Amino acid sequence: MAKRTLYSIIETPLFPNMFDLCQALQINELRFDSMRKAISRLRTNKPDIVVGEFVYGYGNNYAGVNVSNLDVFLYSLQKYATEAKVIVVVEKPERPHVDKLADLFDLHAILTLPVSEQALQQYIEE
Question: Helix, strand or coil for residue 114?
């Protein structure tokens, strides 16, 4: 069986370190701190799993069109990797806003930071 690929989309230092977990589960982790780089990589290396850090679009950055930092990536994911599981990690104050994203996209799990390795493993293996 081919090694699965996991995209880590990292926005803050609070994002969980998944290196050991990915090694134990024999998953190839690709880490991105730029949404543009993650979207660009979709064309050549489709993820099986995405763990993305949610940042709500409070200001003009999202021009009222997008809910968060993940919208554009998730639209692209629908084109290139329709079967990918999406796990969203979010800081507690922003948790209520993730429901708006869940109305637009199929999210496999929503986990509030800090996230335990056991919780991540559970949703990755489901």
Answer: coil
Q: How many residues does the chain have?
A: 126
Cα–Cα distance for residue pair 61/69, rounded to 1 Å: 9
Residue type, 61: N
Low-confidence ranges of the chain (pLDDT < 50): 60, 62
**Which domains are present in the chain?**
4-125 (3.40.50.2300)
pLDDT at 59: 61
Predicted pLDDT at 57: 79
Q: How does 71-100 read in b/e, with b if 16+ C-beta sit within 10 Å? A: bbbbebbeeebeebbbbbbbbeebbebbee
